[in-house]
Amino acid sequence: MNMQWFNQHGIQFTLIAAYIPLLATVTTTILSIVLARATLRYAETTDKSLALAREEFERQWSPELHIKLEMQSSRKTTIVVTNLARISVLLQMVQLRRLDMGVPSLRSLLNEPLVGGTTWTDQLGQNLFACTGDDYQGQIAAAVAFYASGRLYRTDWFRFQVEVRHGELLRLEPVNIAARRAHALDDEEETGQESVKDVVQVMAAKA
């Protein structure tokens, strides 16, 4: 009786024992796939986190200045330069130009340190009228050259709508055009060339 039962079920046990390695292999394969997908997700998340950290670092420590011209009265204007980054810079030159002119009308040399997060202000005096003349209605642009981390940079041209009549300033308003970040100038020759180029014209030429 026992031998008969063993002979009947022995084949089933043998089949089960033969399938165990196959089941183990399938289970291992499935677990490997799951772990591989989890690893890929973790790697993608890590890459995105590193990219965000790098972008945040560059945003905070790359030099970035904002320029604003303010009308105090019909004969008095000021220039306000704000350091939006954490890195300190050394202001070297302020440039003003009319957009219908090929070169800046004013180049004022400076040697002013500007700590990150602070603002530098100066009176333009007659310099604005030297740029516009006694009668002018249109746009002018301002840019600043500065040193940061041992390299010379120049900001984008910040534009302003201005109206001058009989030597009196009637209107001075910023023009909302997206500006690029400050870019490095490699040498004196490039400084001389790039300082008179309107970035908007350069971008239009490349388009």
Helices and strands in order, then pairings?
Blueprint: H1 2-61, E1 65-73, E2 76-83, E3 89-98, E4 106-114, E5 119-123, H2 127-132, E6 136-148, E7 151-154, E8 158-165, E9 168-174, E10 183-185, H3 188-194, H4 199-206
Structural class: alpha+beta
Summed up, the helix count is 4
Distance between the termini: 94 Å
Roughly how many Å is the radius of gyration?
34 Å
Question: The biggest beta sheet, please?
Answer: 7 strands, antiparallel
Which band does the percent of strand residues land in? Answer: 35-45%
What value does the average pLDDT take?
Answer: 78
Can you tell me the number of structural domains?
A: 2
CATH architecture descriptor name of the largest domain:
Sandwich
SSE run: HEEEEEHEEEEEHH
Helix content: 25-40%
Shape assignment:
rod-shaped
Q: Low-confidence runs (pLDDT<50, min 5 residues)? A: 187-207
CATH topology of the largest domain, anyone? Immunoglobulin-like
The CATH class of the largest domain is Mainly Beta
How many strands? Answer: 10
